[in-house]
Specification:
- The protein is mainly alpha-helical.
- It has a domain at about 15-65.
- It contains 2 helices and 2 strands, in the order H-H-E-E.
- The chain is elongated, with a radius of gyration of 24 Å.
Length: about 90
């Protein structure tokens, strides 16, 4: 995906550059940006799934030492958190 617009968040003149580009090129650029967004969203989703899996492995392998974590307000209820792995008791 080659962007015809220099895309950097620090670019101050990006809007001026866009004004000088024809509609066909802008449509193509928009599609390239959307593809890039979808790609990054999929990568983020995969990484979150990996973190969940790692958290489950940690929970199963840790020799927990539970400590009571009091509620933060009247409407919450307290829970137990492991002092080693910081997982909450299920």
């Amino acid at each position: 995906m080659n962007n015809s617009i220099e895309l950097s968040y620090s670019s101050e003149n990006i809007y001026e550059k866009i004004n000088d580009i024809d509609a066909k090129s802008l449509i193509s650029e928009k599609n390239n940006i959307l593809k890039l967004i979808y790609k990054y969203e999929n990568e983020i989703s995969s990484l979150k799934d990996l973190i969940d899996y790692i958290d489950n492995q940690i929970y199963n392998k840790c020799e927990h030492e539970w400590d009571y974590d009091p509620p933060s307000c009247v409407y919450d209820r307290g829970s137990y958190v492991c002092t080693k792995c910081r997982c909450y008791k299920r």
